[in-house]
Amino acid sequence: MKTWKGVPDKITTPSITAVLYQTVTENGKEVTTPTGKTIELTKANGYAGAFSNLPQVDDQGRTIKYSVSEKSIPTGYTSTTDKQSPDKNGVVNLVNEYTAHKTSVSVNKDWQGVPDNVKTPSITVNLYANGKKIDDKTLNSQNGYSTRFDNFPETDDNGKTIDYTVSESTVDGYKLTNDTTKNGQVKVVNGKVKLTNQYIPKQTKITVKKTWKGIPKGVDRKKLSIQAVLYANGKTTKQTVTLNYANKWSADFTDLPLTDSQGKQIKYTVAEKSLPDGYTTTTSGQQKANKDGLVKLVNEYVAHKTSIKVNKNWAGVPDGVKTPSVTVTLYANGKSTNDKLTLDSQNGYSGEFKNLPETDSKGQTIKYTVVESQVSGYKSDNSGQIKVVDGKVTLTNHYIPKQTKITVKKIWKGVPTSDTRDRSIEAVLYANGKATTKTVTLNAANNWTADFTGLPVTDENGKTIVYTVAEKSVPAGYTTSTSGLQPVKNGVVTLVNDYVPNKTSVTVNKIWQGVPKGTNTPSITVTLYANGKPTDKTITLDSSNGYLGRFENLPETDDQGNKITYTVVETAVNGYTSTTTGQQVVKDGAVTLVNVFVPKKTSIKVVKEWSGVPDGTVAPSITATLYANGKATDQVVTLDSSNDYTATFDNLPETDADGNPIIYTVAETKIPDGYTSSTTGQQSVKDGVVTLKNTHTPDTPVTPVTPKTPKVPGQPDKITPGTHSTSEGGEITKTPTQSGKTTQQANTTHASNPQASTPQTVTPAKGKLPQTGAKAKQEIALTVVGILLIGLLIAWKYIGLIKK
Questions:
Q1: Predicted confidence band at 222 (pLDDT cuts at 50, 70, 90)?
Q2: What is the DSSP letter of 28?
Q3: Rounded to a whole number, what is the largest CA-CA distance in the chain?
Q4: Which of 134, 343, 523, 737 could form a disulfide with 312 if both were Cys (CB 3.0 to 4.6 A apart)?
């Protein structure tokens, strides 16, 4: 048997030849010779075989010992056995081991963040195969922190791929940044691995102290506080410390790395985040720490100064009106300082009194006020000296607007002469859409006219006031055609009241015709007309109101007291025609509108199929009739070779007048002679197509007529003198006529004119057979031609049947 060791899964083991040897003792020595017997061990026989029927002694009676070896070792394998003797069970096991491919592992060391003056140490790298250490090497500056493990097998004894990993000895002051296994090993990828160590920089701290200078007595230092910001290489680190009375104006930045990730030294600086009000600094910007790591920040007290901002506010100035300049005088403790500001459009009516002391020589707070010069056409919110609050003061002047008046007039329409009631209405004035408290009364005493007077043209913001007028209430029995707010036109507002006549209503009903089942009828819009002119009144009829609507509260008469004739018009609806187009007259307060559904259109394609038509024969034309619901229509199409036997019934309605679907069929009008149809009668439409099928009927061959037997010519008359031969071999006899003349005729003439006055005797030429007459020749020729024609017809029919 054969045993294979360390063969990878994807490797196919080869066949081998086993050779049998025998060993005998000759003159006290063992002599081994091949027996000449071999067996093949293959994958097919499970690498097992047997040498059988082997003799135990040779022809000299000597005991034979047998052994087996491989004839040759397969390439890529080694053998752990030479000649093998069988065990007690007569079994020999030949063992071959797979020679695994060799690989190497390159290891490189990468140092990161190491300062220039720091020397990197040497490290020990351990190589692992499937988690077990198998070798180690040293990486240092002499070998450039690079090495390689060579000549290691790619697979193990079982043929499995070996997973190689590496680890390194711990290095103080550095940390390994590679991803590792739970055992701290780094995987080898494609025979390579890079071990990266990050330098752990040393740390330092910076102390920040705050010094205050020139703070006067009475200032509470406990309320002072500043923030210091740490910078690294000139960039903010977002680390801050607060310096205040509680920490005695001192704080530390701690745990600061001396070098960055590239090993470069970090330069730290500190800056004050912002200066407290009333102080300046002699240490502005970023400050470096001294050799002891100390940064001092110095602030000096600044005697307080103040400023006063003066703004001018104009109110109610209309667009287009130019505001004037004003002069403002500054006062201190009630006395003029003669310090003045001019406010105008160039400086945006804004100015500032600057660098003013907050306190006087005695340390008392100065109270500042301002006074502005008077401005014509405006009134001021404040007079005299105006107080300054928080360093600001606003001076407001209001525009004094121009005034206007509005005349209100009342017009009455349609009032019968019989109406003698006293009438009076009240009109309300509105400004920018809001009611004012101003009203006027219009009556017959003031001839229905009154005025609103003393009205400002603009509001407090200078915007033009839009005035309108509305009637407070409409008298009973009247309506208004000027309801709501009425605009002023040329200073006048006219309010119109109409007499209210008796009311009526118009009921509109909608009827739909020919609508297919399942079709939702649309909504329609109906417009009311009065005396032939459209009104602004419309109603919508739809399924929700049962297509029934009503125009209500309609006056029976116009403003002249004449009766109004009402009509209605509906808006056209797609997919429908109306039998009540135009204005429909209202009768007895009602009107009915009728719409007829316009059915969708379809088409039917008719195709003619011919079969069995002989080659060279053109199928005839046929006509097809369209049927609707089983009844013939007047629509007919012709199918022939010019339209490739295809035609279409177009523009066919899908539904009838009642909205029911129309079932169309098609029938061939008449079957042509010589053809039969497999689609007789009305044919259903399938997918818009009807196919009519006709088959050619072949003619039955005519039975040929048996030819008659030609008659045997009779015996010739005797030859008489005075004859000569004819072109047919006969002779012509010259016979004198009564007149003494000689008549010469051929025998054929005689045959065709037997009543000639003088008969002629035809005799055969010497040595020739008797000849057939002309009539017999014609009968024979016709018979032969008939036989040939019948033969051709039979042959043509036979060929046509074969083609079918």
A1: confident
A2: T
A3: 200
A4: 343
How far apart are alpha carbons 358 and 305 in whole angstroms?
6
User: Residue length, the chain?
Assistant: 804
Q: How far, in Å, CA of 213 to CA of 234, rounded?
A: 28
Residue by residue, DSSP assigns 466-527 as -EEEEES-PPTTEEESS-SPEEPBTTEEEEEEEE---EEEEEEEEEEESPPTTPPPPPEEEE
Alpha carbons within 13 A on the beta-carbon side of 529: 15
In the chain, what is the straight-line distance between the N-terminal and C-terminal CA atoms, in Å?
75
Q: How far apart are CA 179 and CA 189, in angstroms?
A: 13
How far is Cα 271 from Cα 253, in angstroms, rounded to an integer?
A: 13
pLDDT digits 0-9 by tens, 585-611: 999 889 999 999 988 889 999 999 999
CB 70 within 8 A of CB 17: yes
- Do the Cβ atoms of 731 and 724 come closer than 8 Å? yes
Q: Quote the CA–CA distance of 351 and 344 in Å, as a whole number.
A: 9
Q: Return the closest-CA partner of residue 607 out of 547, 648, 665, 651.
A: 648
What is the rounded (10 degree) CA torsion for 432, 437, 438, 443? 120
Whole-model pTM: value is 0.32
Give tens-digit pLDDT for 503-545: 889 999 999 998 998 889 999 999 999 999 999 999 999 999 9
Element (DSSP H or E) covering residue 732: strand 730-733
Tokens of 695: 């088959």
Q: How far apart are CA 421 and CA 212, in angstroms?
A: 96
> How many C-beta atoms lie closer than 10 Å to residue 442's C-beta?
20
Q: How confident is the model at residue 801 (pLDDT cuts 50, 70, 90)?
A: low
Tokens of 544: 């929700």
180, 186 Cβ separation under 8 angstroms: yes
In SS3 terms, 576-623 reads as EEECCCCCEECECCEEEEEEEECCCEEEEEEEEEEECCCCCCCCCCEE
- State residue 645 phi and psi, 5-degree precision: 55, 40
Q: Which two tokens stand for residue 346?
A: 């160039």
Residue-wise pLDDT for 79-88, tens only, equals: 866 788 898 8
In the chain, helix, strand, coil percent, each to 5? Answer: 5, 50, 45
